Structures are given as structure tokens and as C-alpha cells.
Amino acid sequence: MHNDANSTDTVVDSPLRRQLLGGLLSAAVPALPLIMSSSAGAAESPIQVGGLPVTCNLTLPIAAVAKAAAVGKPGVLAQGFEYSKYNGWPEVKESLMTGRIQAAYMLAPLVMDLADKRIPVKIVSLGHRSGAVIMVRTDSAYRKFADLKGKRIAIPSRFAVDFLFLRKMLAREKMSPKDIEIVEMAPPDMPAALYAKAVDGYCTGEPFGAAAQRAGYARPLAMTRDEWRNYICCVLTVREELIKENRPLVQELVNYVQAAGNWLDSGPASREKAVTIAAGRKYFNQDPNVLRFVMQNPADRVTYGDLRMIRAEFDELMQLSIEAGTIKRPIAYENYVDESFVRAIKPVAISL
Amino acid sequence: MLGVGALCALVAWAALAPITLPSRDELFEIPAGTFARRMAGDKVDILPAEIHLTQGANDVLLLRNLDKVPQIFGPVLIMPGQSFRLPFETVSVNEFACTAHASGQMRVIVNAMPAVGWPRLRWRAARAWKRMQST
Question: Is the peptide bond prior to A120 cis by the omega test (within 30 degrees of 0)?
Fold first, then answer.
């Protein structure tokens, strides 16, 4: 395959050339298994960690890049982990259920539900805190959450933690879900729906709030940073086989995710570097200006530094999920969380 | 006889001549009413779900939003009437979130410049056929 346009113009194709190439290929084919096996033995292939291109998942690409940069240094496992981009939670869930991937960032209530269905998965770390917003049109009269009574609000799905945020806000204002009209909609459609006045507001994770805010026609009415500061939605989840078969790798994954979180919250320079990394085609494949907007407006719109796993917070999330009807019954904390990796964290340096 | 000669010359040119296009932009327009159709449950893709570009020839995707609402692409938010230009530098397969598609996804495949001979002839024929269909 020629990637250089000019070089293709100088190639002379002929039957003789094809015969020569064919001969070379047929001579090389018997040796291929030897070549393949020798290279396979050199290093184990990295595990794929599923994630979505959303700022709640930002610690994952940073951890993957930092780990890749550290391979070869003393005390660092040769086997790495790579960010595997998915387009929606149902695909991540399916891949994790079937074992197509061994690890992923997942919505915490979905993991609880999977554990309840005896799918062998465990939450081993948080991925972030905060990062959900309720957006309204800039020119709307809504100034406080209670102003949304009787209005049409879009949410990603009734299983999304954003919906729990909305319910929490309703409860705080002594309102019920019947006081608003809820419509389910894919987050990328929300900015257009708000612009077209098909909805009066939307509740979702970033960067879909920032995209409309940056365009000038939307503003946040409520943000988790103000209303539910310890909000969690995306958590690092691994299949139990991986824990049993490769505990050191899971530990290293947790070490790097936690280190990525501390690094992201260490200052504007780290966040700017993170924007450059995450915007790349291999990762989020997004407009760096939108990601930068999320990182800066305000700086704690999404936070990453406090990734402690606190039982009471998961209990609250479960209670809210049960009330919302997305989880049928309480699930024992030990059934879906493995705290041992966070307890055994070894600090790693992020040098990017 | 002259006609056969001219046809042979055309085929030879198509197979051998370097590919140079007036612009490297490959324009795709999101027509007015796209969002309304999608919200009404219309599953028909207005843009192709898969866009093929050729490195060194037409390797800049140019999206023009003619709809009355913003459209998200990747997720750059393209306001009504705005255009978004995205150059591709390497042969690759790229997945983008795109609100102009029923699936919410668009794939951009960047192919290598076709080699001299049959691949180049086929490339030109396919491009001519596509242009004939769209007019």
C-alpha cells in the first residue's frame, strides 16, 4: 500500500513485477508462523479497557498514555492497557457481559445491576467526580430548578446517573417526576433539541452541555459541582477472571487511574496536556476547544483527584436507583465492589 | 475507428494520469429538516453512513449544516449555516458521533491513493458514476 501520492505515480506495474512479488510472498508465507510466534512471545498484548469519549472517562486515556510511557522502567509491568472507544453504554455493557473486554468504565448502577444478575464484575476504582449539568436556553426565563415545573426535560436514559441527579433536584424542591415531562434522548441530540425548543432543558454529562454553552445559546441551570459535589457515575469495572488471573495488572491499572486523577487535578498545565491527548483520534476524537471549555469553566466542573471509594456514597446511589426503579432490590456492597486494589495503591509518577 | 481510439486514449489516461482534483474538500451538506425528520422517527440516513476519502486527492471532509438546528459531529457543534472542515493525514478508519445519522454514528474511511493502472481506472470510474448519480 502506498501512502505517498507521488510515489504511486512512479510505480511501474507489470506482469513480471507481479510475478516477482508473488514469488517473494509465497516464499515468505511458510516462515510467517515462526515470525508471528517469536514476536508474540516478546510481550503480552495489552488489555483493552472500554470507555466512552466523555470527560467523565478522561482518567482512562491519561492512564493508558502514562503507562505506555513508563513501560521499560523498573517495577513497571511489561503488559499495558489500552483505551478502547465505545459509542454507548449498552455496547460497553454487552462487551463486559460477554467477556469480549475484561475491563471498562461503566455507570455504577449498571454494575450493581450486572452483579445482581450474577455477572462476575467488580468496581475497583472511581473514574471521576461531578460532571453532570442541567442546561437551559440562555434566553429562557428559568433561573432556579423549580422554574422547570411542567417543562420538558431530556435525559440520556432512565438508567443514567444523570436521571438520578434530576430526581435528587426534584426531591430537594419537593417536586416529583410527574411535575416535569421527561423524554429520553441520545446526548448528542440534546443541544439541537434545546436549540429547536423541542425540549426546555436537558440533563447529561459533559461535553454535551459545554458544546451548547460554548455556542452561546445555552447556560447551565444546575451543575453537580454545586448540587451534588461527590456525584459519581463512571467507575472502573473489571471482570473477576481478570482479578483471579492477573491481579498485578489490575493493581497497576488502578494505580495509574488514581495517579491520572491526581495529575489531572494538579493544575491547569496538566489539564491542558490532557485536552491535547484526549482530543486525538485514538482517544475521544473531539474538538479540543470543547474539552478545554469543560476543563476550565469552571475548573471543578469535573474533578478527578478524589477517587476514594466510600461505601455510604454507593449506598446512596443504590437507594436512588431503587427509588427510580432502575434496580429492583438492594445488592450487597461486597457483591459489586472490590476495595482491595484501592487499599493497596502504590503511587506512580505521571510524566507526560 | 476514431471513436475506438478516443475511448482507448480515455481509458489509458484514466489508468495512468496522476489524480489531481480542483479541491481536496469533499463536501457533504446536512439538508434543512434533518433534525425534524430524525425526531419524527425517520430512520433514513440523509448522509451516507460511510464516507470514503482518498489520501492526497480528496482528504478533507467539509460538512455544511443547512439545517435549522445545530448538528454535532464528533462532537464539534456546527451551528445552522456553519461549515466544519476536517483534514485527514493518514490512511485510516475513523468513527464519529454524528447527529445527522439515524444511528448517531458516521464512519470516515481514508483510503490510499490508488496505484497506477486498474485501481486508478476503477477509482475514476466510481467517482464519475457517483457524480452522474447525484446530478
Answer: no
